[in-house]
Amino acid sequence: MAYDFQVTIDSTEPHPLADWWADALGWIVEPSDEAFIRRMVAEGYAREEDTMTHRGVLVWKVGIGIRHPESGRRILFQRVPEPKTVKNRVHLDVHIPDDKREAEVERLVAVGAKVLHRGSQGPSTWVTVTDPEGNEFCLH
Questions:
Q1: What's the pTM?
Q2: Which residues lie closer than 8 Å to 127 by C-beta, 6 or more apart?
Q3: Fewest CB atoms less than 10 Å from the CB: which of 69, 77, 84, 132?
Q4: Residue 83's pLDDT band (boundaries 50, 70, 90)?
Q5: Residues 126, 138 contacting (CB under 8 angstroms)
Q6: pLDDT tens digits, 7-24
């Protein structure tokens, strides 16, 4: 039996980080269902403190997902109280054509990424970078 999964990334500020990743990957931030959120609060299933406004929209404070526009694959960004302190044990490898990789590195650095190192093994090359909260990922 095969299982499906989503990747979840811990974050101190999940909504801005989800925006950043959606832009970086060309994915879509999942729309907020404000009416549902208001109903859950009104009916006592959630508290007003569980919500916040992000970019003028009522959202769940705990997190937000982004989706690939065609496949529907999902990455969830969830709020945690502590910042990242050590190297990731799991990371994303984002496949970028060789002739576009340097331009993509420059674009991401301009919006908050940091280059950690460049690597190669045989014919494969990659650039390891971090997102604005320090999560590592590689551009292959």
A1: 0.91
A2: 101, 105, 115, 117, 118, 119, 138, 139
A3: 69
A4: confident
A5: yes
A6: 999 999 999 999 999 999
